[in-house]
Amino acid sequence: MNIPLAKIPILNKRVRFPVSPHIPGGLATPADLCRIAAVAEKYGGTLKIAGGNIVIIGLTLADGEAAMNELGMRPESFLSNTIRGVTMCAGKPDCPRAQQDSTALGLALDEEFFDQQTPGKLRIGVSGCPNCCAEVFVKDIGLFGTAAGFTVILGGSSGRQAQVGSIAAGNVPAEETAALIRRIVDYYRNNAKNKERLGQTINRLGLDHLVSQAIPSQYRLSK
Ligand code: SF4
């Protein structure tokens, strides 16, 4: 049963509702920004820009739900067991260092994977070159571009139990990355304990276990 949160009196009295529309890649048009600003103004909220997100803060629960409906945009996911919006660097054509089109790939991955259910929180990041501006070594699944394709890093986290991910695959063509991530996410669903991050699953079972089950041999770094 789906009861609007604003109908629950105790929540409505105490909770402030951060309105955070999902903006794939953080790429917004001026019209998008004007619409978000107008809704924030209408409900007396303040805008907070955090990473690729714009959040309207300071609203009551009832106003927050009304504002979200009025925006007509999907909300960001704050649940602990979902795939978050994909982070991507500027990449081609905006960055002269880009070796792969991180924006096109990041948007395609966001379209497919955002908000899917997983055992724990899962973050994906895509960088266009080894400079890794999208902080892909601290994403559960990170990719950076090289002239030969994408290198895949698994098990990173910037959260409470921060850790640097491990390079698990290389030379993956852009058009094959979604299929590879499907295999990794399937592995995660089949092997993780409830609320375990991918890096914790890897710590428990070993990277070799994941690689043997989820990474096709042509992308393994030691074959
Ligand atoms: S990771 Fe590379 S391509 Fe992406 S913004 Fe940084 S320098 Fe540019």
Automatic annotation (TrEMBL):
Residues 81-214 form the Nitrite/sulphite reductase 4Fe-4S domain. The keyword Iron-sulfur applies. Keywords: 4Fe-4S, Heme, Iron, Iron-sulfur, Metal-binding, Oxidoreductase. PROSITE patterns: NIR_SIR. The keyword Transmembrane does not apply. It holds the Pfam family NIR_SIR. Residues 19-72 form the Nitrite/Sulfite reductase ferredoxin-like domain. Gene3D superfamilies: Sulfite Reductase Hemoprotein, domain 1. GO terms for molecular function: 4 iron, 4 sulfur cluster binding; heme binding; metal ion binding; oxidoreductase activity. This is Sulfite reductase, assimilatory-type. It comes from Acetonema longum DSM 6540.
